Predict the structure.
Amino acid sequence: MSLKLYNTLTRKKEIFKPIKKGHVGIYGCGPTVYWHQHIGNLFRYIFEDLLVKTFEYNNYKVKHVLNVTDVGHLTSDADTGEDKIEKAAKREGKSAQEIANYYLKLFINDFKKLNIKEPDIWCRATKHIEEQISLIKKLEKKGYTYRTSDGIYFDTSKFKDYGKLAKLNIKGLQAGKRINIKEKKNKTDFALWKFSEEPGVRQQEWKSPWGVGFPGWHIECSAMSIKYLGETFDIHTGGEDHIPIHHTNEIAQSEAATGKKFVNYWMHSRWLLFKGEKMSKSKGGIFTLSELEEKGFESLSYRYMALTTHYRKQLNFSLELLEASKIAFQRLKNIISELKDDKKTNKKYLEEFREALNDDLNTPKALQILWKLVRDENAKGKFRTIKEMDKIFGLDLLKKEKVKISSEIKKLVDEREKARSKKEWEKADELRRKINKLGYFIEDTNKGVITRKN
Ligand code: AMP
Ligand code: ZN
């Protein structure tokens, strides 16, 4: 069955054709590790996880690379402002690498909570300075660079198709006079290497052929993706905010350096909104997974919520919406927990499920198929079919939950057992209803009675 993916470059859904049969290389722009990643950031990595797992489900061998920005990302996505990591280091009185390690650890922990598979390769910008310098040297040799008082810049007017990904109106951009371009030749030019204002003051700086400094934000992704996946690779992902600047610049510098097409398929997930605006640190109204936990939402309820929307649609987050997802998810798990394994799978449902996924990761549809299956009284093979589906959903649908049972419930369960042993069925049913009403759920198995929370 073919796999269709929406390609930002062509603005079309296309049948995926790998460079090497049966293999796919995926590079995703990872976090800037200067603070907690909020659930908006994590929304993007749930999308990436679905992409990787969909390829695996289709028997592809996946090589998944995710970068970690631990230097060079300035407080504005352009080339101004402070380095986010250096700023955090000052704020917290730690070294830049302590900051990066700490927030990366928290990030990976969030991956675990959300059942997001870690990439095959995590690559850090600070560990690939040489590769970045050598890519800039290549660009310099080919005449794409120039020097200003604060760094080495890429001259975007020399790259023929600059802005093709975002379909930027370059003339319009150049004509508008509001952006202060200082010594830049064109508004869209960007820094490849920035000089340290005062060498010795920054924590992270390196020697280069042009002077002491640090790499610009965009060059790390070109250098590392080429290193691990080759000069042309299959898929590059990111959030929708990456299209006009970061990915546009990645394409320009990579293709200028290699003379080859950089990436075949560009995929972007849309934003998680809060009160109609992008959830972001600067606007407030953000949540971390731990904050949601404190409010009584387990992380997988959040994953469930993310699956109810398509990655190319923005989702307006609210605690009410999350509450509704939590209830639906719990109901789903309760129904599933009643199922017995008949050692079969249901081909018809699996086929439908794969079709939905292979249609540009249509997870809302895939979830509907799951719900249809659990409600279909005549369907065979439910247990194993759900197990297969959960390889993608990652919701631990078949995991038995352990809950603490209060003594009041235990007493009712015992009473019900006694009634059953005396064949007092009505009384036993009455007690079961009482237990259900208190929010618990009992299951009679050959290993005895199991009590779970509703
Ligand atoms: P950052 O750590 O700021 O570099 O962001 C990491 C990733 O999260 C980027 O790929 C962004 O596109 C993505 N991102 C940031 N905010 C949101 C949001 N509200 N919804 C979805 N993705 C986001
Ligand atoms: Zn990137």
